[in-house]
Structures are given as structure tokens and as C-alpha cells.
Amino acid sequence: MALSLEEQARIDLAATFRIVAHLGMHEAVANHFSAAVSPDGKQFLINPKWKHFSRIRASDLLLLDADNAENAKHPDVDATAWAIHGQIHQRLPQARAVLHLHPVYTTAVACMAKPQVLPIDQNTARYFNRIAVDEMYGGMAETEAEGARLAGLLDGKTRLLMGNHGVMVIAPNIGEAFDDIWTLERACQILVTAWSTGQPLRVLSDEVAEKTAKGWEGITDFSRRHFEEMKALMIEADPSVLD
Q1: Domain holding 85: CATH number?
Q2: pTM of the predicted structure, to 2 decimals
């Protein structure tokens, strides 16, 4: 029997937590991923407060309603998660998946005086002129006003480099969101490693960088397949993700 939209989203989102933990991109028991399960995007799944990514199961995910402020009082709902993800799902119906992380290399780039991903290879060129940048970090994002501000920065963009903070990506599905945040971290790892040599960078021309970015945009099936392969590995390693 076919799974419902919510059942499939639960499995895919739970698997994403496991994958990110497996890859070492998580941060303690912080950070949040969410996935919309209603046509308007306002009903969404999100991880409970302070549960390690490597232990999250499909049934652990909370089902929240962005229009219901009472959800913020739930003991398992983190204040920052509600402030950020609640506002994004309320305001951006195209954000079917929302991933927020503090991965080492992407966060390092976000801490530069001028946060930018220079196009020096195929991975970095994927983001040429395609990242919004937030340079107004003001501490923990615990208010709806802050969440609304971040949602505004993502309107028309799918990636947000959060200065002095981390990164957020939105996508039309979980598979594309996962591959995007993974590739962005790989891109920043390549960039930081190149910078660390102290040698001049050979930055791609705008023409080549734009051509490469468009090439990436034409193979979203690659992104979804990458996720499906990683999901299968997680299920084989520990089927409890499906519980």
C-alpha cells in the first residue's frame, strides 16, 4: 500500500537526520530540519528539542501548524525552531523542506568579513550568484520577527549564508535540500582548503561559473538520487529510522 505524503515525509526527514549525523555535519543536539506536509505548506514536521540526529525515528517528528501559536508552548518544541521554521513555512509555501545547520566549513565561510563562495571549481560554481547573505546576526533567533526577517531574505532564493551563524537551505523536496546543503559544505571545504595554502586562487570567469551553475540546475534528478542512495544506506545500517 502506498504511503501517505506525511508518512513518506516522516521517513525521508528522519533519514536526513541520520545521514547528516553520519557525515558529521550536525552540532550536538542543536539545529533543525522541517518538511511541509500540507498543500499550503503551513503544516510541517520538525525534530523534537534536544534529540540527537543519529537517534531520530520517523515517529519522533512533531507535526506543527505554522498558524497555531499554541504550538510554541509544546515542551518538545525549541523556541528557535518555532521562530525560524514556523515563519518560513507560514510565509514561503514553496519551502517544502527547510534545513538549518552549523557545519564547520560553511560556517567558517559565513564568519568572513565578506561571506561569499567564490567559484573555483564545479562545486563552488553551483552557488554562483545564487546565495543570499545575512550579515545581521544578533544572537539566538527566538522571536517570530527574526524568523520573518530570515524568511524575507529567502524569498526568491533557496540558500541563505547566515553570517556569524551557519546556513539554511529550502527546496521543493527533501532530497534536493539534502544534496544542496551537502554540496555547499563540500564547496566551502574546498574553498577553505584552497585559501589555507596561501596561494592565489584561480577563480572561474563569470561566464563559466554561470554556465556551471545552470548545469547543476538541470540535474535535480542527480540530487534526488544522491539522497535515495544515502537513505538506503541509513536504513540498511539501522532500520529503526523507519519506526
Answers
A1: 3.40.225.10
A2: 0.96
